[in-house]
Amino acid sequence: METAVPALPRPVGRPRDPALDVAILAAALELLGEGGMETCALDAVARRAGVGKATIYRRWPSKDDLVRDAFGSTAPELLPAEDQGSLVGDAVGVLAALAAALRAPRARAWRRTVPALGPDSPLLPGLPTGPVGDWTGAVDGVVARAEQRGEVGPGTFPPLALRAACAVLVERWLTGQDLDEATETALLTELQSVLLRPHLRG
Question: What is the pTM of this model?
């Protein structure tokens, strides 16, 4: 005779709605990008997400916990890995990807939030170190591929020239200036005519 298996108790309340998690995290990231921790009050997050404050507390016991998850809810922008076939194409790809990364909500939130935290803030260990990524490695890869193609002679193209172009974008981002398409286009034009083409063979 088989032994009856007791039925498991049914969970109390409604099941958690993942769509609410997404809305809350997106609202928190937007508010962090607008004014940092001060702007990202839980009342403001609740209003922006269209939920009650209790809905947030059921998911995150504190604002610090919510902020950590908000930064972790979006992946950092990836560097372009594909070979574009030329020094100019690769360099433009890296610069365009950097501009896109710096315009992303995660980067705006980082700029407004992290620099304002004290060095002993308990929130720091759970936050990303920055949205830029290993751009130095990406620049070195651009130069190495150009040398392999024979576009530039070994050691004749200074990687610092391309890093300087990246630094212009980062400087504008750090100081809160716009990184619109017009700025990006102008910088790409300068990059090609002033920094890259003089070093190309032929």
Answer: 0.74
